[in-house]
Amino acid sequence: MLYYCAVRVILVRDYDQVSVRAAQFVADEIKKNPSLVLGLPTGSTPVGMYKELVKLFQSGTISFKKASAFQLDEYVGLAPDHPQSYQFFLKDHFLDNVDFPASNAHFLDGMSQDIPKTCDIYETSIRKSGGLGLVILGIGRDGHIAFNEPGSSLSSRTRLKTLDHTTIRDNARFFDQPEDVPKFAVTMGVGTIMDSKMVLLLASGRNKAQVVSDVVEGPMTAMVTGSILQMHPKVTVIIDGEAATRLRRLDYYTKVEEMWDEKLSV
Ligand code: GLP
User: Fold this and answer.
1) Which residue in 105, 120, 132, 253 has its CB near the most CB atoms, within 10 A?
2) Active-site pick, 149, 214, 232, 240
3) DSSP letter assigned to residue 205
4) For 146-175, how does the pLDDT look when each residue is reduced to its tens digit (9 = 90+)?
5) Is the pTM of the predicted complex or chain greater than 0.85?
6) Which residue, 159, 183, 162, is CA-closest to 171?
7) What structural domains does the chain harbor?
Protein backbone atom coordinates (compact mmCIF):
# COMPACT_ATOMS: atom_id res chain seq x y z
CA MET A 1 0.00 0.00 0.00
CA LEU A 2 1.40 3.38 -1.00
CA TYR A 3 -0.25 5.17 1.87
CA TYR A 4 1.11 4.25 5.25
CA CYS A 5 1.41 7.39 7.38
CA ALA A 6 -0.04 6.88 10.84
CA VAL A 7 -1.76 10.19 10.32
CA ARG A 8 -2.37 11.56 6.83
CA VAL A 9 -1.15 15.15 6.68
CA ILE A 10 -2.39 17.45 3.91
CA LEU A 11 -0.50 20.72 3.73
CA VAL A 12 -2.18 23.69 2.06
CA ARG A 13 -1.23 27.34 1.68
CA ASP A 14 -3.41 29.24 4.11
CA TYR A 15 -6.61 29.30 6.15
CA ASP A 16 -8.84 29.72 3.09
CA GLN A 17 -7.31 26.64 1.54
CA VAL A 18 -7.77 24.66 4.77
CA SER A 19 -11.47 25.57 4.58
CA VAL A 20 -11.85 24.67 0.90
CA ARG A 21 -9.93 21.40 1.23
CA ALA A 22 -11.84 20.39 4.39
CA ALA A 23 -15.20 21.10 2.75
CA GLN A 24 -14.12 19.08 -0.27
CA PHE A 25 -13.16 16.20 2.03
CA VAL A 26 -16.55 16.26 3.78
CA ALA A 27 -18.39 16.62 0.46
CA ASP A 28 -16.58 13.58 -0.98
CA GLU A 29 -17.55 11.50 2.04
CA ILE A 30 -21.18 12.68 1.91
CA LYS A 31 -21.34 11.77 -1.77
CA LYS A 32 -19.97 8.28 -1.00
CA ASN A 33 -22.36 7.88 1.91
CA PRO A 34 -25.33 10.31 2.02
CA SER A 35 -26.33 8.92 5.43
CA LEU A 36 -23.00 9.85 6.98
CA VAL A 37 -23.06 10.48 10.75
CA LEU A 38 -20.99 13.57 11.46
CA GLY A 39 -19.38 14.84 14.64
CA LEU A 40 -19.34 18.63 14.38
CA PRO A 41 -16.85 21.06 15.90
CA THR A 42 -17.06 24.70 16.90
CA GLY A 43 -14.31 27.31 17.38
CA SER A 44 -12.96 29.74 14.81
CA THR A 45 -11.08 27.14 12.75
CA PRO A 46 -14.09 25.35 11.15
CA VAL A 47 -16.01 28.56 10.32
CA GLY A 48 -14.51 28.75 6.79
CA MET A 49 -15.21 25.06 6.16
CA TYR A 50 -18.87 25.55 7.10
CA LYS A 51 -19.09 28.52 4.70
CA GLU A 52 -17.67 26.37 1.91
CA LEU A 53 -20.07 23.52 2.70
CA VAL A 54 -23.01 25.95 2.54
CA LYS A 55 -21.76 27.11 -0.89
CA LEU A 56 -21.51 23.50 -2.08
CA PHE A 57 -25.07 22.92 -0.90
CA GLN A 58 -26.33 26.09 -2.59
CA SER A 59 -24.71 25.11 -5.88
CA GLY A 60 -26.49 21.75 -5.71
CA THR A 61 -23.22 19.80 -5.33
CA ILE A 62 -24.18 18.16 -2.04
CA SER A 63 -27.17 17.48 0.14
CA PHE A 64 -27.35 16.67 3.85
CA LYS A 65 -30.93 15.37 3.68
CA LYS A 66 -29.97 11.90 4.85
CA ALA A 67 -27.02 12.84 7.06
CA SER A 68 -26.99 13.00 10.86
CA ALA A 69 -24.95 15.16 13.17
CA PHE A 70 -23.80 15.15 16.76
CA GLN A 71 -22.20 18.21 18.27
CA LEU A 72 -18.84 17.50 19.88
CA ASP A 73 -19.30 19.54 23.01
CA GLU A 74 -21.34 22.19 24.77
CA TYR A 75 -20.85 24.70 27.57
CA VAL A 76 -22.66 23.96 30.80
CA GLY A 77 -25.04 26.73 31.82
CA LEU A 78 -25.69 28.26 28.39
CA ALA A 79 -29.17 27.87 26.92
CA PRO A 80 -29.40 26.73 23.27
CA ASP A 81 -30.41 30.25 22.17
CA HIS A 82 -27.41 31.88 23.88
CA PRO A 83 -25.25 33.30 21.04
CA GLN A 84 -22.14 31.68 22.53
CA SER A 85 -23.68 28.24 23.00
CA TYR A 86 -22.22 25.69 20.63
CA GLN A 87 -25.70 24.61 19.55
CA PHE A 88 -26.39 28.20 18.43
CA PHE A 89 -23.03 28.29 16.63
CA LEU A 90 -23.65 25.08 14.69
CA LYS A 91 -27.14 26.14 13.63
CA ASP A 92 -26.02 29.63 12.74
CA HIS A 93 -22.91 28.67 10.74
CA PHE A 94 -24.08 25.46 9.18
CA LEU A 95 -27.17 23.42 10.03
CA ASP A 96 -29.79 26.12 9.41
CA ASN A 97 -28.16 27.06 6.09
CA VAL A 98 -28.32 23.63 4.47
CA ASP A 99 -31.02 20.96 4.08
CA PHE A 100 -30.12 19.19 7.32
CA PRO A 101 -33.25 17.57 8.82
CA ALA A 102 -33.75 19.01 12.32
CA SER A 103 -34.60 15.55 13.65
CA ASN A 104 -31.15 14.28 12.61
CA ALA A 105 -29.22 16.97 14.49
CA HIS A 106 -28.32 15.93 18.03
CA PHE A 107 -27.24 18.38 20.71
CA LEU A 108 -25.87 18.13 24.21
CA ASP A 109 -28.05 19.84 26.79
CA GLY A 110 -25.77 22.12 28.78
CA MET A 111 -28.75 23.17 30.95
CA SER A 112 -29.59 19.63 32.02
CA GLN A 113 -30.22 19.04 35.72
CA ASP A 114 -28.90 15.52 35.28
CA ILE A 115 -25.72 15.73 33.23
CA PRO A 116 -24.63 12.07 33.63
CA LYS A 117 -28.03 10.94 32.33
CA THR A 118 -27.84 13.40 29.42
CA CYS A 119 -24.40 12.00 28.56
CA ASP A 120 -25.61 8.38 28.68
CA ILE A 121 -28.56 9.22 26.44
CA TYR A 122 -26.17 10.94 24.00
CA GLU A 123 -23.90 7.89 23.81
CA THR A 124 -26.98 5.71 23.22
CA SER A 125 -28.20 8.01 20.41
CA ILE A 126 -24.78 7.80 18.75
CA ARG A 127 -24.91 4.00 18.92
CA LYS A 128 -28.53 3.94 17.65
CA SER A 129 -27.56 6.10 14.68
CA GLY A 130 -25.05 3.43 13.66
CA GLY A 131 -22.00 5.13 15.20
CA LEU A 132 -20.04 8.18 14.16
CA GLY A 133 -18.79 8.05 10.57
CA LEU A 134 -16.72 11.23 10.40
CA VAL A 135 -15.72 13.37 13.34
CA ILE A 136 -14.32 16.77 12.39
CA LEU A 137 -12.05 18.40 14.95
CA GLY A 138 -10.24 21.62 15.68
CA ILE A 139 -7.48 21.56 18.25
CA GLY A 140 -7.01 23.57 21.42
CA ARG A 141 -3.58 25.08 22.06
CA ASP A 142 -3.15 22.66 24.95
CA GLY A 143 -3.91 19.73 22.62
CA HIS A 144 -7.54 19.20 23.63
CA ILE A 145 -10.01 17.67 21.18
CA ALA A 146 -13.66 18.62 21.76
CA PHE A 147 -13.32 19.64 25.44
CA ASN A 148 -11.09 16.75 26.48
CA GLU A 149 -8.61 18.75 28.47
CA PRO A 150 -5.08 17.55 29.31
CA GLY A 151 -5.20 14.60 31.68
CA SER A 152 -8.53 13.28 30.32
CA SER A 153 -8.84 9.52 30.19
CA LEU A 154 -7.99 8.37 26.70
CA SER A 155 -10.91 5.95 26.83
CA SER A 156 -13.41 8.50 28.20
CA ARG A 157 -17.01 8.72 26.98
CA THR A 158 -19.37 11.71 26.88
CA ARG A 159 -19.24 13.42 30.26
CA LEU A 160 -18.92 16.60 32.29
CA LYS A 161 -15.50 18.26 32.11
CA THR A 162 -13.99 21.13 34.08
CA LEU A 163 -12.28 23.50 31.66
CA ASP A 164 -8.58 24.25 31.89
CA HIS A 165 -7.49 27.84 32.53
CA THR A 166 -5.76 27.95 29.08
CA THR A 167 -9.06 27.08 27.38
CA ILE A 168 -11.03 29.55 29.48
CA ARG A 169 -8.48 32.27 28.59
CA ASP A 170 -8.50 31.35 24.87
CA ASN A 171 -12.31 31.34 24.72
CA ALA A 172 -12.70 34.61 26.64
CA ARG A 173 -12.50 36.47 23.30
CA PHE A 174 -16.04 35.33 22.53
CA PHE A 175 -17.56 36.75 25.73
CA ASP A 176 -18.09 40.33 26.95
CA GLN A 177 -16.37 39.67 30.30
CA PRO A 178 -13.72 37.03 31.06
CA GLU A 179 -15.82 35.93 34.06
CA ASP A 180 -18.72 35.11 31.70
CA VAL A 181 -16.80 32.17 30.18
CA PRO A 182 -18.34 28.94 31.47
CA LYS A 183 -16.05 26.85 33.66
CA PHE A 184 -17.62 23.50 32.77
CA ALA A 185 -18.62 21.70 29.60
CA VAL A 186 -20.17 18.45 28.43
CA THR A 187 -18.08 16.76 25.81
CA MET A 188 -17.81 13.61 23.75
CA GLY A 189 -15.04 11.56 25.31
CA VAL A 190 -11.74 10.69 23.69
CA GLY A 191 -13.01 7.10 23.40
CA THR A 192 -16.22 8.32 21.74
CA ILE A 193 -14.18 10.20 19.13
CA MET A 194 -11.79 7.28 18.63
CA ASP A 195 -14.76 5.01 17.81
CA SER A 196 -15.57 7.16 14.76
CA LYS A 197 -14.77 5.46 11.47
CA MET A 198 -12.90 8.56 10.24
CA VAL A 199 -11.45 11.67 11.83
CA LEU A 200 -10.59 14.95 10.14
CA LEU A 201 -8.56 17.49 12.13
CA LEU A 202 -8.08 21.09 11.00
CA ALA A 203 -5.52 23.60 12.19
CA SER A 204 -4.37 26.95 10.93
CA GLY A 205 -1.93 29.62 12.04
CA ARG A 206 1.35 29.90 13.88
CA ASN A 207 -0.21 29.59 17.33
CA LYS A 208 -1.20 26.00 16.46
CA ALA A 209 2.27 24.96 15.16
CA GLN A 210 3.48 23.44 18.44
CA VAL A 211 0.30 21.55 19.18
CA VAL A 212 0.10 20.20 15.62
CA SER A 213 3.58 18.73 16.01
CA ASP A 214 2.62 17.35 19.46
CA VAL A 215 -0.50 15.72 18.01
CA VAL A 216 1.06 14.31 14.84
CA GLU A 217 4.60 13.49 15.95
CA GLY A 218 4.77 13.85 19.70
CA PRO A 219 4.60 11.03 22.20
CA MET A 220 1.08 9.76 22.78
CA THR A 221 -0.05 11.13 26.09
CA ALA A 222 -3.20 12.07 27.94
CA MET A 223 -1.54 15.45 28.47
CA VAL A 224 -2.21 16.13 24.76
CA THR A 225 -5.47 14.32 24.17
CA GLY A 226 -5.28 14.85 20.39
CA SER A 227 -2.09 12.73 20.28
CA ILE A 228 -4.18 9.55 20.75
CA LEU A 229 -5.31 10.09 17.16
CA GLN A 230 -2.01 8.44 16.19
CA MET A 231 -3.76 5.19 17.21
CA HIS A 232 -6.71 5.81 14.91
CA PRO A 233 -6.72 3.92 11.59
CA LYS A 234 -8.15 6.74 9.47
CA VAL A 235 -7.14 10.25 10.48
CA THR A 236 -6.54 13.14 8.10
CA VAL A 237 -5.03 16.41 9.26
CA ILE A 238 -5.41 19.47 7.05
CA ILE A 239 -3.08 22.32 7.99
CA ASP A 240 -1.67 25.48 6.51
CA GLY A 241 1.99 26.47 6.19
CA GLU A 242 2.06 28.36 9.48
CA ALA A 243 0.57 25.51 11.50
CA ALA A 244 3.07 23.12 9.88
CA THR A 245 6.27 24.95 10.82
CA ARG A 246 7.20 22.61 13.69
CA LEU A 247 6.59 19.30 11.95
CA ARG A 248 9.83 17.35 11.64
CA ARG A 249 8.69 15.14 8.76
CA LEU A 250 6.83 17.68 6.66
CA ASP A 251 8.86 16.82 3.52
CA TYR A 252 7.84 13.21 3.90
CA TYR A 253 4.11 14.00 4.26
CA THR A 254 4.27 16.27 1.22
CA LYS A 255 6.08 13.60 -0.80
CA VAL A 256 3.51 10.96 0.16
CA GLU A 257 0.67 13.24 -0.99
CA GLU A 258 2.45 13.90 -4.32
CA MET A 259 3.01 10.19 -4.90
CA TRP A 260 -0.61 9.51 -4.00
CA ASP A 261 -1.83 12.19 -6.47
CA GLU A 262 0.39 10.73 -9.22
CA LYS A 263 -0.94 7.26 -8.54
CA LEU A 264 -4.53 8.49 -8.72
CA SER A 265 -3.95 10.30 -12.00
CA VAL A 266 -2.50 7.28 -13.90
C1 GLP B 1 -12.82 25.01 21.84
C2 GLP B 1 -13.61 23.82 21.31
C3 GLP B 1 -12.71 22.87 20.52
C4 GLP B 1 -11.91 23.66 19.51
C5 GLP B 1 -11.02 24.65 20.23
C6 GLP B 1 -10.11 25.43 19.31
O7 GLP B 1 -12.17 24.72 23.02
N8 GLP B 1 -14.23 23.09 22.35
O9 GLP B 1 -13.55 21.91 19.88
O10 GLP B 1 -11.13 22.78 18.73
O11 GLP B 1 -11.90 25.55 20.91
O12 GLP B 1 -10.75 26.55 18.80
P13 GLP B 1 -10.20 27.49 17.66
O14 GLP B 1 -10.49 26.82 16.40
O15 GLP B 1 -10.99 28.76 17.83
O16 GLP B 1 -8.74 27.68 17.90
Assistant:
1) 132
2) 149
3) S
4) 999 999 999 999 999 999 998 899 889 999
5) yes
6) 183
7) 7-265 (3.40.50.1360)
